[in-house]
Amino acid sequence: MIGRIAGRIVYHGEDHVLIDVQGVGYVVYCSDRVRVGLPGAGEAAALYTDLLVREDLLQLFGFPTLVEKEWFRLLLSVQGVGAKAALAILGTLGPDGVSRALALGDWAAIKAAKGIGPKTAQRVVNELKDKAPAIMAMGVSDPLGDDPQAASAEVIETSPAPDAPRKAPPRRSSAQAEALSALGNLGYGPSEAAGAVAEAAGAEPEADTAALIRAALKLLAPKG
C-alpha cells in the first residue's frame, strides 16, 4: 500500500498530477480543489495517498491531510459512491464541509457535488452520520500525536515526591476540549456547544472524543 508520496511535480493534468519520486513518476488523482492548491511544475509536493486496486486498474488518489484521506475512504463505503463521486464531494465541500453536512443532515449540500443525485446524497447522510464523529475527532486531535519524539516525550514523567498524590491523566478534559473544537468547526456557538458537550460528558464520563461528538450532535439536533 502506498500511503504517502513526496517528490517534485512534473506536470498538472486535468484531474491528476504527475509526481517524480527519485526518478519514478506517480500519477496521483486529486480533486480540483486539491490540485489547484498544489505548487507548479518543478516544485516539491507531498500528498497522503490511497491506492484503489481493481482487476484491471490501479489508481492512486492524493489528499493534503490524513483527515481528508479518511473522509474519502469513508465515502467509498457508501453504496453507489465511487472514487470519482467521493472526490467530487470532497472537492466541492472540503473535509469541514462534509463534516457539517453530515452533522446537520444536509443532504442538499452533498447533492451540490457534480454527478451526485438526491438519492445518493441522502444515502451518504443516512449511512455516514453515525460514523462521521470518529473522523471529525481526528481533525482536532493533537497534531504532534504522530510525532515519535513527541510521543516518547509524553510518557517521560518526573518522579513525584513520596507523599505527593499522583495525578490522573487528563483524558476526559482533553476529549471534551476536542469535542468542543469539532463542534466549533461545524459552526455551533461556544455556549450551545459547551452545554451539549457537558451534558454528554455527564451522561458518559469515560467517553472518548468521537463518542462525545456523536452524543453532543444528537443533543443539538433540531427537535421534532
TrEMBL record:
Residues 173-224 are annotated as: Domain III. One of its GO terms (biological process) is DNA recombination. The keyword Nucleotide-binding applies. GO terms for cellular component: cytoplasm; Holliday junction helicase complex; Holliday junction resolvase complex. It is found in: Cytoplasm. Residues 157-181 are annotated as: Disordered. Residues 1-64 are annotated as: Domain I. SMART domains: HhH1. Its main location: cytoplasm. Keywords: ATP-binding, Cytoplasm, DNA damage, DNA recombination, DNA repair, DNA-binding, Helicase, Hydrolase, Nucleotide-binding. Pfam families: HHH_5 (PF14520), RuvA_C (PF07499), RuvA_N (PF01330). Residues 73-92, 108-127 form the Helix-hairpin-helix DNA-binding motif class domain. GO terms for molecular function: ATP binding; four-way junction DNA binding; four-way junction helicase activity; hydrolase activity. The RuvA-RuvB-RuvC complex processes Holliday junction (HJ) DNA during genetic recombination and DNA repair, while the RuvA-RuvB complex plays an important role in the rescue of blocked DNA replication forks via replication fork reversal (RFR). RuvA specifically binds to HJ cruciform DNA, conferring on it an open structure. The RuvB hexamer acts as an ATP-dependent pump, pulling dsDNA into and through the RuvAB complex. HJ branch migration allows RuvC to scan DNA until it finds its consensus sequence, where it cleaves and resolves the cruciform DNA. Belongs to the RuvA family. Homotetramer. Forms an RuvA(8)-RuvB(12)-Holliday junction (HJ) complex. HJ DNA is sandwiched between 2 RuvA tetramers; dsDNA enters through RuvA and exits via RuvB. An RuvB hexamer assembles on each DNA strand where it exits the tetramer. Each RuvB hexamer is contacted by two RuvA subunits (via domain III) on 2 adjacent RuvB subunits; this complex drives branch migration. In the full resolvosome a probable DNA-RuvA(4)-RuvB(12)-RuvC(2) complex forms which resolves the HJ. Has three domains with a flexible linker between the domains II and III and assumes an 'L' shape. Domain III is highly mobile and contacts RuvB. This is Holliday junction branch migration complex subunit RuvA. It comes from Mameliella alba.
